[in-house]
Amino acid sequence: MTYTVVQLIHLFCAITFIGVVFFEVFLLEGVRAKLGPQLMHQVEQGIIGRAKFIMPWFVGMLFISGITLAGIHYANNPRVFSTPFGIMLGIKIVLAISVLVHFVKAMTAAQSGCMDSTRFQYTHLSVFIHMILIVILAKVMFVIHW
């Protein structure tokens, strides 16, 4: 596959993942008070049930394509991580690993029935903040050359 195809797959999966998290943080949380705890719990359970089915595919492809892109950069310049681009790439990788840990812990909690509303809120907010930082780095790393 060419770099552009892998990059498009990565971008599509990132948009999907960030979109879901954005929905949960900004839209779903905005109706929490109006729905009440019992109905909100049912909504969260419905979302968790659907997310357990589709999100692992998007997250998996996101990470596979990201690793592929990083590998291409490394193959083209084995010292890439000593450049400004590579430093930002390294920070993105650390943030992405943190997102993956959040995701795996959330899926595990959902499987075991331990995903309560508070944990649901904080997990999604934390992942959203990570994702915003990753998006900023993704743009800036191709622009800044110090």
Record keyword descriptors for this entry.
mainly alpha
How is this structure best described in words?
The chain has helices spanning 3-76, 84-112, 117-140. By secondary structure, it is an all-alpha fold. The longest helix is centred in the N-terminal third of the chain and has 74 residues, at 3-76. The chain starts with a helix and ends in a 6-residue tail after the last helix.
Major sheet size, sense and barrel closure: none
Mean pLDDT equals: 89
Weakly predicted, low-confidence segments: none
Measure the end-to-end span: 31 Å
Return the domain count.
1
The gross shape turns out to be elongated
Number of distinct helices: 3
Approximately how much beta-strand content do the residues carry? Answer: under 5%
Written as H for each helix and E for each strand, in order along the chain, the element string is: HHH
- Tell me the Rg in angstroms: 17 Å
Number of strands: 0
Topology:
Blueprint: H1 3-76, H2 84-112, H3 117-140
Helix pairs in contact: 1-2, 1-3, 2-3
Quick summary:
By secondary structure, the protein is mainly α.
